[in-house]
Specification:
The complex is a heterotrimer.
Chain A (H helix, E strand, L loop, with lengths): L17 H7 L7 H6 L44 H24 L8 H11 L2 H18 L3 H28 L5 H12 L4 H11 L4 H29 L4 H6 L1 H24 L1 H30 L1 H21 L5
Chain B lengths: L10 H8 L12 H4 L24 H24 L12 H28 L3 H31 L6 H5 L6 H11 L3 H30 L3 H31 L3 H19 L1 H9 L8 H20 L11 H6 L3 H11 L13 H10 L4 H17 L23 E2 L2 E5 L2 E5 L2 E5 L2 H9 L1 H4 L5 H6 L8 H8 L14 H17 L1
Helix pairs in contact in B: 3-5, 3-9, 4-5, 4-7, 5-9, 8-9, 8-10, 8-12, 11-14
Chain C lengths: L3 E7 L2 H13 L4 E5 L2 E7 L1 E5 H8 L12 E5 L1 E4 L3 E5 L3
Antiparallel strand pairs in C: 1-3, 1-5, 2-3, 4-7, 6-7
Helix pairs in contact in C: 1-2
Classes of the chains: A mainly alpha, B mainly alpha, C alpha+beta.
């Protein structure tokens, strides 16, 4: 019945919310990302200071040394709000489920050579704990960051990392017939194995970082570049040569995910570095510090798993990619 | 190593392997540094492994179910906008409830997202952290789906345009804002008691269930769809709320008095906040399904009593002051509506005197009080208005230091006398609307003296100036458009024009 | 006195057969209709059985799918592979 009304009467009186129009520079139709993200975090007149840390406000710009005139100048290049994020992940997961059942039905993991099956247990499965650490760090980033456009990429990433930890765990359950023994063993490696200790130490050290932007660089830029390069490029290629193509199928979620993840993570560095020379210097220093630490921490494990030569080649590729990404983000390393 | 034969795995075991096993006790950094906030409230946790997961969604299932909900919801939102769904509501007065919702409630969904993100990082136990993180992202969903659903109304009605700015400043919006600021600045266990248990489990049904059903009854398919879609997450959140309470109570009996105090406090805080909902239900739905009083009886008196009987085995009692709402239920919505009728010139929504049909409905739902106390008041206001003298109160009201609602509630045992309470702290006097609010202040005066009380702030010159005009400008409120009586508002004129065009087209 | 547990579901096509299954498996349940929703109260305990729902839907039904339709509940939740139960402690 509404169609019976003359359309002239139904001209909208405004096209979007006032705060969105202000940011767009005009009252024009806005996207759901814009309406659902801009200015949804309170900024003024907080009633109480946190009883758990009275030195700060509930939302506080001073929890990082990075200074931004307006944190909403950062916008997720993927333009994810909850709906688009969740639908994107459910699609990726649907494909992943097909891969799981394909591999499971044909017992494809069985064809991996014993030596490399052991390596899956030793190198790949303990990464579930690394991913859990990344979940904690991205929760922390989302918790302490300022502005909804920044905070929401953090909580999306946190949930992603939980999901990835669960995918890795399911590979373990496929290998151990749902007994969970492979996961127990992987936890022992994570907690006790000599080559894993520098990594675990670095992850635990990252848990107590004061500056959330530094935490973002440590976790999402430096450590991840090394873990994802070593695991989903170098290890993936090496195991393929030992009948391990099935594992590649199960890694597909992570490969696609990381290609996407880099977009928002790098863009955050780019936008903040472009804001001021001080920001650029801080970010560049943090990148230098954490990539060096991460490479050092992962070297023993990479060498033990891939061999010295392959490990060196892997780090070379990782560093070349990191240099490229840093340059694109406008950093000076 | 051969790939082993597959064992069947139940949902509990699978969840435990895929989630609980991920965490470890840190050794390179001390636990106190990694989880610095979960001890200072005095809650004693002996073993986080005894945490019972309230629900067992792994991320694969979470993404799958939530994506399905989102697809359905956005299909409705799209079709609502494409079909000019705003024309299908019963009456444009109804939109004023939506204005309160968008400016008062939606920002709380965001606050909840950040609050749960905080505790989702900081609890010592993996199970608790995962449950809180899922709730965090759900709450982000709620604020975004609300903004997206109401985006269409914003295009056609006033008062919805500047939600965030208003939420941080406007006097009555400090009621919901300070409620959530209070919870978020508390420790993690109190936060969960406040939000997951007292608010989500005990009280939000009153907001979301009958009100959303009322939205459907009034033709607002956008709101009922996001409302019920959000509620489908709420079943998980409620389960978390009950779960965390039981966990604290089971871990150590020394936790019982701490938890009981939090329940007392947050029951009262939540109840006072919900007085806005009482008004929305009784006055702002043109077609009504249930009175505030009936909703209180179903959702607190019946369901709440069962709950607290169940918790009795841990030594938990019904919240202190739980009997006061029973005494107030015959008058709560009328008192709040009266406050807003007085101050509509400073609000971003409209009020009105209920029409005769509505007064009859109110009388039928409140036979002991409505005709006795409130009808004469409304008749008087209507007569004044008809004589060209729509009354607006030009004196700024005194606010309760705790709940921040203007002092308009009456004595529990005397509906004709305004209730005033006060306390001294460091030589200053602080005022309260009730024993419940005074009791909360007296437990934590250092916290509540910090409150950003809008009226004090106006007097101190922090709100754009000394006159109402200045303050409204500072609120970014469009004068004579967003505020004042519904009668004569642009909303009303447009609505009537649409109805007239519709009638013409039909004839 | 046995206290009521309660579950409220959306009144849509997905939930309709779940409501039917609940009514069948819980003879003491009282079904209350409201605009757009259905509130089911039951003394002491209420069970949603996977088997019954699957029979009605004519397809596999994961118990967790109930979360797509639930609006509210009252009672302690026990969610298992083949049932979803609400109860108050004895």
């Amino acid at each position: 019945m509404s169609l019976e009304i003359k359309t002239s009467v139904l001209q909208p009186r405004r096209n979007t919310y006032a705060n969105v129009a202000e940011r767009l520079g005009a009252d024009k139709p806005a996207t759901r990302y814009e309406e659902g993200t801009f200015d949804i975090q309170p900024t003024d007149n907080f009633h109480f200071r946190p009883t758990w840390d009275s030195s700060r406000e509930l939302y506080d710009k001073n929890l990082t040394k990075i200074k931004m005139e307006d944190w909403y100048s950062y916008r997720d290049p993927r333009q994810y709000y909850y709906g688009t994020y969740t639908i994107a992940r459910s699609r990726m997961m649907e494909a992943q489920e097909k891969n799981f059942s394909f591999v499971e039905k044909r017992n494809l993991l069985d064809s991996i050579s014993d030596e490399w099956k052991e390596k899956v247990g030793y190198f790949f499965l303990p990464l579930r704990h690394y991913e859990w650490g990344a979940n904690m760090n991205n929760s922390d980033f989302s918790d302490r960051s300022y502005g909804a456009s920044v905070s929401q990429v953090g909580i999306f990433a946190a949930m992603d990392r939980l999901g990835i930890a669960q995918i890795i765990s399911r590979v373990g359950l496929l290998l151990d017939g749902n007994s969970g023994t492979s996961l127990t063993k992987a936890k022992d490696y994570w907690l006790e194995d000599e080559a894993w200790q520098p990594i675990r130490k670095m992850v635990e050290d990252s848990f107590v970082l004061d500056d959330w932007f530094e935490l973002h660089i440590a976790q999402n830029f430096c450590m991840d570049a090394i873990v994802y390069g070593l695991t989903y490029d170098a290890f993936d290629a090496a195991i393929a040569a030992h009948n391990g193509a099935a594992l590649s199928m199960l890694n597909e979620f992570m490969v696609d995910w990381y290609a996407e993840e880099k977009k928002w993570a790098d863009n955050l560095l780019k936008v903040c570095a472009a804001e001021s020379d001080e920001n650029k210097a801080l970010i560049s220093d943090w990148v230098k510090k954490w990539r060096a630490q991460a490479e050092e921490a992962f070297t023993p494990l990479a060498q033990k798993t891939l061999g010295e030569e392959a490990a060196a080649a892997a780090f070379e590729a990782i560093n070349a990619d990191l240099d490229k990404r840093a340059k694109k983000a406008g950093l000076e390393l | 190593m051969a790939v082993n034969k597959k064992k069947r795995m139940g949902i509990k075991e699978r969840y435990s392997l895929l989630t609980r096993g991920l965490g470890w006790d840190t050794t390179y950094q001390p636990e106190e540094k990694v989880y610095p906030y979960d001890k200072y409230e005095g809650i004693i946790i002996h073993d986080w492994d005894e945490w019972e997961d309230p629900f067992r969604l792994t991320m694969d299932a979470y993404w799958k179910f939530q994506a399905e909900k989102e697809r359905k919801l956005y299909a409705v939102i799209d079709s609502f906008a494409q079909n000019n769904g705003h024309l299908g509501i019963t009456d444009a007065r109804y939109i004023n409830a939506i204005k309160i919702f968008l400016t008062g409630v939606s920002p709380l969904e965001y606050a909840a997202a950040r609050g749960f993100t905080h505790v989702g990082r900081h609890f010592g136990g993996v199970g608790a952290r995962v449950a809180c993180q899922m709730q965090a992202i759900d709450e982000l969903r709620h604020v975004q789906t609300q903004l997206h659903s109401m985006s269409h109304y914003n295009k056609y009605f006033d008062g919805l345009h500047n939600r965030g700015h208003m939420h941080d400043r406007v006097w009555y919006l400090s009621v919901p804002k300070s409620f959530f600021d209070d919870a978020m600045t508390a420790g993690p266990f109190e936060f969960l008691t406040a939000i997951s248990f007292s608010f989500e489990y005990v009280l939000t049904n009153l907001l979301f269930v009958p009100f959303m059903s009322g939205a459907a009854f009034n033709g607002d398919m956008a709101t009922v769809t996001f409302g019920f879609s959000a509620q489908s997450d709420e079943a998980r959140h409620m389960t978390l709320g009950l779960g965390v309470i039981k966990f604290m109570l089971e871990q150590d009996e020394r936790n019982v008095p701490i938890v009981q105090h939090w329940i007392d406090k947050w029951f009262w805080r939540g109840y006072r906040f919900l007085s806005l909902v009482a008004m929305m239900m009784d006055y702002m739905l043109p077609k009504r399904i249930m009175s505030w009083k009936e909703a209180w009886e179903i959702y607190f008196e019946d369901a709440g009593t069962s709950l607290f009987e169940d918790l009795g085995r841990y030594g938990i009692k019904l919240p202190k002051f739980h009997d006061i709402p029973a005494k107030e239920k015959d008058r709560l919505s009328h008192e709040v509506w009266s406050i807003f009728y007085n101050y509509t010139h400073a609000a971003a929504f409209h009020t009105w005197v209920p029409n005769e049909d509505e007064m009859q409905w109110l009388d039928s739902k409140y036979p002991d009080t409505f005709n006795k106390y409130y009808r004469p008041r409304y008749d008087h206001w209507q007569a004044e208005k008809d004589a060209g003298n729509r009354f607006y109160n030009q004196t700024l009201p005194m606010l309760c230091q705790t709940c921040q609602i203007p002092m308009g509630f009456t004595e529990p045992d005397d509906p004709t006398t305004i209730c005033f309470r006060s306390s001294e702290h460091n030589g200053e006097t602080y005022h309260f609307c009730s024993d419940g609010c005074k009791n909360i202040f007296d437990h934590e005066p250092e916290k509540y003296v910090q409150a950003w009380l809008p009226v004090h702030q106006i007097y101190q010159g922090n709100c754009g100036g000394a006159s109402v005009e200045d303050v409204l400008e500072w609120y970014k409120l469009n004068k004579s458009v967003d505020n004042m009586d519904y009668d004569g508002s642009p909303d009303q004129k447009l609505w009537e024009q649409w109805q007239a065009d519709r009638a013409k087209a039909a004839s | 006195m046995t206290r009521n547990v309660s579950i409220t579901l959306q009144n849509n096509d997905d939930a309709r057969l779940i409501i039917e299954a609940i009514a069948e498996d819980n003879p003491e349940a009282v079904v209350n209709q409201y605009p757009a929703m259905v509130k089911i109260d039951c003394p002491g305990k209420l069970i949603v059985k996977q088997e019954t729902v699957e029979e009605k839907l004519g397809r596999d039904w994961d118990v967790q799918e109930i979360h797509l339709s639930v609006i509210s509940l009252a009672g302690n939740v026990d969610e298992e592979d083949d049932y979803f139960e609400l109860s108050w402690g004895a």
